[in-house]
Amino acid sequence: MSEFESHLLSELTGPLQDPASDPVAPLQNRRTFLARTSVLTLAIPGVGAALAACSQSGSTTSDTTHQRGRDTSRHAAPGAHNSDSRLDSAVLKPGHHPGTSATGTATAGAANVAFHRWAPELPPLPTGTTQQIHFHAREAPVRISDDTVVGAWTFEGDVPGPIVHTRVGDTVEFTLTNDVDIPHSMDFHAAQIDPKEAFKSVIKGQSLTFRFKPKYAGAFMYHCGTAPVLMHIGSGMFGAICVSPREPLPPAKDFVLVQNEFYLADAANGTRASDYQKMLNTTPDLVCFNGRPNQYVKEPIRVKVGDRVRFWVVSAGPSHPSNFHVVGEQFDTVYLGAPPANAIHGVQTFTVAPGGGMIFELVCDVAGEFPFVNHGFGHGQKGAIGLMVVEP
Ligand SMILES: [Cu+2]
């Protein structure tokens, strides 16, 4: 491995040599934590009949670091840690970077957290050409099924984070405020921007603002990029930014599906934390659309005959693709890249890579119940199945 490659690897995964920042070492703490606490069991919800049916034109960076309400130099600020850099390890002393997401407020009050279906509808485009978005990095218990609460690291308290909808050439002015002890950051795949500045980590109590103008339309991922990225995405810090083209696409019912994997430790205090070792092994317990296993089997997506349906599918991973397929339907159009170009037609299944996104369209000619699935069924069966009901 060249020096450059070694450097790059270190940037993405965190230092490999420095035991002070070894994300696995604090697993001992997790074991201690788990040993102190009670254990619940998880029943993975059944998948029912669904299975039987089918075995800038230039971006501008302008960031400001605030510390306790006053501006500080973004280069000199003690908290201005670069995303994924060795500087992160400087604040992650032994025992402070967990191999589990069961940190602080991620588990508090878990028993009282209610389940809510994650609304998949694409929100309308905002008016105006500049959209201001302010996310807080928070830890929160998130109920992903009747009997499972995940101790999650989040944007805005839910997994996935909120859907962002913007348009090619419009300005996104984004601010991240970190409410918690572990540094976090934001990486928008829809941006072309200096990541060392815009995507750098923000420590507790600080905020960072940057601006960009999406150059391409499409379904893009956003995620926390703080090292180790695997742990931060795997613990819930991801979402979708949907970029519409300047010329509107054909009228449709637009839905956003973000696929992710959960890697869960044993239950403790009514919460299941994310397990970094399972993430490294790429052996998920659950694979979900929009953060809850099989949620759209219970409460399907509903459209009508004649509707054009557009799925903005993002594969957040952290490690596995979404092999997107609708049982009993065919995709009229799949946009491999930015719409309206890059279209292919008459498609049964297409794979969305981890870290990728694609737009799938179909026209509902037939009434019925149509499962949409990850046709890699080892993962589909772990929760990446939903139902689209086409009403007459
Ligand atoms: Cu993070």
Summarize it.
This protein has helices at residues 3-13, 27-35, 49-53, 86-91, 195-198, 229-234, 276-281, 295-298, 377-380; strands at 65-67, 70-72, 130-145, 148-155, 164-167, 171-178, 187-188, 206-212, 218-223, 238-244, 253-262, 264-268, 271-274, 286-289, 301-304, 308-317, 322-326, 331-335, 343-347, 349-352, 356-363, 368-374, 385-391. Residues 4-9 and 15-96 have low confidence and may be disordered.
Can you describe what's shown?
The chain has 392 residues and is mainly beta. The protein has a domain at 287-391: Cupredoxins -  blue copper proteins (Immunoglobulin-like). It has 9 helices and 23 strands. The protein has helices at 3-13, 27-35, 49-53, 86-91, 195-198, 229-234, 276-281, 295-298, 377-380, and strands at 65-67, 70-72, 130-145, 148-155, 164-167, 171-178, 187-188, 206-212, 218-223, 238-244, 253-262, 264-268, 271-274, 286-289, 301-304, 308-317, 322-326, 331-335, 343-347, 349-352, 356-363, 368-374, 385-391. Bound molecules: copper (II) ion.
List the helices and strands and how they pair.
Blueprint: H1 3-13, H2 27-35, H3 49-53, E1 65-67, E2 70-72, H4 86-91, E3 130-145, E4 148-155, E5 164-167, E6 171-178, E7 187-188, H5 195-198, E8 206-212, E9 218-223, H6 229-234, E10 238-244, E11 253-262, E12 264-268, E13 271-274, H7 276-281, E14 286-289, H8 295-298, E15 301-304, E16 308-317, E17 322-326, E18 331-335, E19 343-347, E20 349-352, E21 356-363, E22 368-374, H9 377-380, E23 385-391
Parallel strand pairs: 3-6, 4-13, 5-10, 11-16, 15-23
Antiparallel strand pairs: 1-2, 1-8, 3-4, 6-8, 7-9, 9-10, 11-14, 12-13, 16-21, 17-20, 17-22, 18-19, 18-21, 22-23
Copper (II) ion binds at residues 153, 184, 224, 226, 232, 237.
